[in-house]
Structures are given as structure tokens and as C-alpha cells.
What does this fold into?
Amino acid sequence: YVHNRAYQDVQSQFESCVASMDPNRLVVLLQHNPYHISTLLQVSEIAKQESDHATSGDLLERALFSLGRAVHSTFAKNLSEGKARLDFNRPENREFWLASWKYMQNLSMRATWRTVYEWAKLLLSLAPEQDPYAIWLVLDQYAIRSQQSLDYLNISRNATFKTVHNDLPNVQLSQGLAEFRAGNKSKGQQALFTAIGRFPWVVARLMQELSIQPPPAVWGKEPRTDREKLHAELYAIR
It folds into this structure.
């Protein structure tokens, strides 16, 4: 994405409105510039804070529509083939991730899990090596909730991603659960046993969240690093 001079002028006005800390100024700016991405995202967040989730979702859809209209004509074809890439290091590109992520949260409130799962896959495909929004930490849960177990297994077991998520407990646990849900019960149970053996502190934290007495094999198991603690917290709470 490239911002032309006119867009940069509106961006400067947006930054002035944010600095004023007056949400009404942002609303007025949006009325004059109804497709300015930063303003749409900020006013959407204001609507969300006021529990107006319908308006928040509408504004996010408008932002995504605007972003979609701005892309090159070959982008859609490349996107459908999994070949489209966006450089996250370019600040102008980051608003696509932010708008998509916020829209996914809005869709989650409606429990439209299949749509959320497809958006998650789209974001992952735009920068699969970097995964700037850490989609691997949530992709499994969207897949399970949308009953896309086989699709998730095909993606997560792709050789390209093996080194990326080999030490992510949620991926290993969800692969076992996906196998079980897909009808491969014995294979799924074995995968779960293996994952629990590798990441017992995650299961201990999960059982704590569910108020279940953990078995001796995982009782009292604690994460060894801050990273392991973070992954356990994210998985158990979600």
C-alpha cells in the first residue's frame, strides 16, 4: 500500500484528532473522509467501547472494503492461490492486519467460527514465515470450533511449518484433538498423550481454569520460562 499526498494530509488531520483526545473530532473527520482507514479503525474501537458492536463491525467492513479496492488487480488471484504477500515492515501495510484482526474479534462475538478461521488462514498466508500477528496461537481453536479438523491437520503438518510451531503446545494438543474429532480416535489419543508429556504445565493450567483436580502426572507442573507461562495462559483462558 502507498499513501498519496491527499491521503497523507488526512492522516495528519487524524493524528491531530487523536492528540486532542476528543472522540467527537474523529467522528467529524470520518464524516468528511468516510474511507480513511485509520479513522475507521479508531471510530470502530470507540463504538466497541460503547458496546455498539454492530456499528463497530460495519466500520471494520468499510475499512476492509477500502483496502480491497486499493490493491493491485493481480492481488486477488495471487491471494486465492496462496501466493499473495504483504511486507509487515511497511507501516502502510500493517493496517490490513489490524483491520482484519479486529474484524475477526467482531465475528467471534457472533460465533461465526468458519468465517473467522478463513480470515485467520488469510492473514497467515500473507506472511507465513514471519507470522507477525502470531496466528498459530489461535488458528487451532478457530479450526476446532468451526469443525475444520482435517483442514487444520493438513495445514499444521505441512513441512514448511514444522520448525515454526514444533514447540507451540496449543498446536500439538489441538492436533491430537483434531485427529480425535476427525474419527481417528486411537491416533488422536496417542498424539494427546505425547503432547501432555511434552507440555504438562499447560494441561495443569487448563485443569486449574476448569476447576478439575489434575492427575499425578501433571499435578504441580509449572512452566519453566516466561514464554511457556504465556503460552499456557493464552491456551487455558481462550
In short: The chain is about 70% helix and 0% strand.
